[in-house]
Amino acid sequence: MIQENKNNSFISKYNFWSYILIAIVFFNYLLFRAIVIDSNSSIYLITFILDYIVLISFFLLVFYKFYNFIFTSQLLLSIIGILFLIFGTLKLYAIDISVYNIIELLFFISLLVLTLMILIPMILSKTITEAERGIYIFILLSLLSSNINYLIISANKIIDTDSFHYISTYISNYMSKLSSFSFLVLMIYYILIFIKEVIMKNINISFMFAVIAIILSIAAIFYFGNSFFLIIISFFSALGIVMYLHFVVYMVIMIMFFITLFTSFMTSIVSKEYYPKLIIFTLFILAGLDMSNFSLRLIAVFAIMEMSGIQNNQKDAASYLTNNDL
């Protein structure tokens, strides 16, 4: 379990800036990536600027967390985390193809180790419910399988043998399916949990926004026509999800996801009730499964570290109540 200092969670302390980051990540990494943008257009320039804002912001946030681990007796995790940041940065600027391939492989390895070091203690914790444990397992499955898939693809660029290519192709296909299905389960969980925890608990406020979201969804279907189906495919592609099931399943999940996201956040803003778990889980979902994008991996790593931080806070609160009862 990651041990962080109390009040070290950015999400728990800065609700305004958390909402801003969510908006930037949503528009830049899901909406804008799902549409074709002319490289000469002003929107392309906006996405370029937003990309660097996200990269720098989450780089600093993640670096601060790894730096803080040095003072909480987690030196190994801090070292692995800083190596992840170094390899990710070098990957952005490497020019020579052979050097790039080696750096990319080291980046995926450090990310794999980092993911295991953060999530396994969370799964093994005795202070969480079985439902929470199940979600953490699916988070681990989705990230781990996608990471292994990208690692294998990267290794193929260095190890150029027929036997390795044959074996790695089989493993890669399996990992792609596992990561896509696991992430789909997480999207369904996102819909169910926040309908229950945010929308239903504030039904008087959320009902209006839910109706607006449904009307907008229906209007989009009629306005875009057949292009709407291509947009749905583009959304899942932006998340790094390969579509193996019937298209209708993915369309329903994506529409429900957008309705839940819009309704939950608007309800939270209007009711002035802040839900850190909503922010964190939304960031994680929007980061998707694209392991090659350094900005998206920073977002995902930040999200799971925030999950661990909230879990620690809940554990501390439970211990405090127990001690007071005694």
Automatic annotation (TrEMBL):
The keyword Heme does not apply. It comes from the Bacteria. Keywords: Membrane, Transmembrane, Transmembrane helix. The chain crosses the membrane at residues 16-37, 43-63, 75-94, 100-123, 135-154, 174-195, 207-235, 241-266, 278-305. The keyword Membrane applies. This is Uncharacterized protein. It comes from Brachyspira murdochii (strain ATCC 51284 / DSM 12563 / 56-150). The lineage of its organism: Bacteria, Pseudomonadati, Spirochaetota, Spirochaetia, Brachyspirales.
